[in-house]
Amino acid sequence: YNAIEADLAPGRDLDDLKDIASKAADNIARMAALFTLYEGGEMIGAEGVQRASRIVIWHMHEAKRFFGELKADPQDLLAAKLDRWLLDQKRDRIPMSEIQKSGPNALRKKESLEPILGRL
Q: Which Pfam families does its entry note (predicted)?
């Protein structure tokens, strides 16, 4: 539990999952109780808490991975939009001036277009 709390600090591993990680201790306790009940025990032991902790921590890291993948870099989104536009043109070569004139609106200025072309 203390390790999870420490990782909730700003800039730490779980900083962006406070809503999920703040419930970790409760979830660990519930799971440990379920393990104990399922195994016919009467007292929650350290082993059950450790097993529950491993599962909860794994799920938190999966949530971090999943939600991290949903946060797309805006530059990557523009690169994908330009890539789609270029493919739709069905030509081998397209002058930069034509992209600036007819391409995606967000990329019609040279300052916006050049970094995105570098990503492709």
A: DUF3987
